[in-house]
Design a protein that fits this description.
The complex is a heterodimer of chains A (257) and B (201). Chain A is mainly α and 257 residues long. Chain A has 13 helices and one strand. Chain B folds into two domains: 1-95, RNA polymerase sigma factor, region 2, helix turn helix motif (Rna Polymerase Sigma Factor, Chain: A), CATH 1.10.1740; 108-201, Winged helix-like DNA-binding domain superfamily/Winged helix DNA-binding domain (Arc Repressor Mutant, subunit A). Classes of the chains: A mainly alpha (257), B mainly alpha (201).
Chain lengths: 257, 201
């Protein structure tokens, strides 16, 4: 294979560490992220991070740094809700962060007003009592997560505007909102409506971060509908995603061992 | 910091123990940050994108099976998040993020700092000129030192395709550096002659 020429190699060598984060970057992102996911970070962890990678060089003219972090409060609630819904923490995958504690932590953070993406918030509405009761139907045996009922903070009626630079988080939030909406339809026994949401997710985020969850939910829907070939497709899915958090859900819905 | 300085923990399935998210985050934050930047995420969006990556890592860490290095696994997640970010940007008007971040190195004198900043700007300009597929392979191979099989695993494509993309990306990168040097010789002949490298191959 051809190698880079000396001038190109020199440029790479000279700029190899130019994009490393600064100390301020490391601290800011760590604090924001860990506050959201409810992980308690040791005091030494930040220092270790700085020693490992974050350079001490200040960054000049770094521009307006992402102001979208507030939008993610609702996102995290939704993420944890999805985990719980799929039974991620139900026993097959021991967690290093107890879900209830995490959810509690995030929910308390979420009490900050007017910070939730309006589109996502509309779809993050906690299930109504009737919806919750339907989740115990035999075809959908997985219990609803605590997060679903303890996340009313995500339902803010006040108009919310995502700040500039929020595109990344908004996109992920949109993904999660679609998947969660599909799951709520499944929980209500409406597989056809779930497939509409899943099709929209596939169209908007064909290779999104929630693609695996989408395909798992799609199989659940098809198995609920009794579609021919759904079980075979589920077996194929499980062959490659047998250890996936959603595998339990797919097995349950499709009657597979 | 050199990317080589980071640990590349390999978790053997048989010995797999629950991974501590905080430890994983601390070990991999720098490489996720700089990789996202080099894959085209503008400075103003870096916080959000990096946090999105680690939100997914946090959600999926329990399902990590140790079939690859943790770095490769995380890179795969980062790549998907960055691709999604790019698609979102293409659907929406620009947020005014020009990506003109200039690093000031306190170890360097002013002239060196300016030269370094120019080098960084050139690097990003050339990376911006590559198409997404070549850019991804180039960043993983040349800047993060991943092997072709690792890159193939991250991208989910054949290793021969990785070699082909890397070959093409290197050629374009070389040509871009050569064009830059030619312009420098034209605009600033004294500087170009004093820095005279061998040029692109």
């Amino acid at each position: 294979m051809n190698e880079l020429g000396p001038a190109a190699r020199k440029l790479l060598d000279e700029t190899r560490d130019a994009d490393d984060p600064g100390v301020a970057d490391a601290r800011r992102v760590r604090a924001a992220l860990f506050a959201k996911i409810g992980v308690t970070a040791g005091a030494g962890a930040g220092a270790a991070l700085i020693a490992k990678g974050a350079k001490a060089a200040p960054v000049v003219a770094s521009g307006a740094l992402g102001g979208a972090t507030l939008v993610k409060i609702g996102l995290v609630v939704a993420t944890l809700g999805i985990e719980g819904y799929f039974g991620l923490r139900a026993g097959t995958h021991p967690s290093s962060a107890p879900p209830v504690a995490s959810i509690s932590s995030v929910s308390s953070t979420s009490s900050s007003p007017s910070v939730v993406d309006s589109t996502a918030a509309a779809k993050l509405v906690a299930p109504s009592p009737s919806t919750s009761s339907e989740t115990t139907a035999p075809v959908v045996p997985m219990p609803l997560p605590v997060a679903a009922s303890s996340a009313p903070v995500a339902v803010k009626s006040a108009p919310v505007i995502a700040p500039p630079g929020a595109t990344g988080s908004t996109s992920i939030a949109d993904e999660i909102a679609l998947i969660r909406s599909a799951q709520q339809h499944l929980a209500a026994g409406d597989a056809a409506a779930a497939l509409v949401e899943l099709d929209e997710h596939a169209a908007r985020f064909p290779h999104g971060a929630m693609a695996e969850e989408r395909e798992g939910a799609r199989l659940v829907a098809h198995c609920m509908l009794g579609d021919a070939g759904a079980v075979a497709r589920a077996e194929k899915f499980l062959a490659s995603h047998g250890e996936s958090p959603i595998a339990v859900r797919v097995r349950s819905a499709c009657g597979l061992p | 910091m050199s990317p080589h300085a980071e640990p590349l923990p390999v978790v053997e399935p048989a010995a797999a123990a629950p991974l501590d998210f905080a430890g994983v985050y601390d070990a991999h934050f720098p490489f996720v940050w700089r990789s996202a930047r080099r894959l085209g995420v503008a400075p103003a969006s870096l916080d959000d994108v990096v946090q999105d990556v680690f939100l997914v890592v946090h959600r999926r860490l329990d399902s990590f099976e140790g079939r690859s290095t943790l770095k490769t696994w995380i890179f795969g997640i980062a790549l998907r998040v960055v691709r999604d970010h790019r698609r979102t940007l293409r659907r929406k008007p620009t947020d005014g993020d020009d990506g003109l971040e200039i690093h000031a190195d306190p170890r360097a004198n002013p002239a060196e700092a300016v030269e370094r900043a120019e080098g960084v700007r050139l690097l990003h300009a050339i990376l911006d000129g590559l198409d997404d597929e070549k850019r991804e392979v180039f960043v993983m191979a040349e800047l993060e030192q991943l092997t072709a099989p690792e890159i193939a695993e991250v991208c989910g494509i054949n290793v021969n395709t990785i070699y082909a993309r890397l070959r093409s990306a290197r050629k374009e990168f070389d040509e871009a550096v050569a064009r830059h040097q030619a312009r420098e010789r034209f605009v600033r002949p004294s500087k170009a002659s004093s820095s005279g490298e061998g040029g692109a191959s």
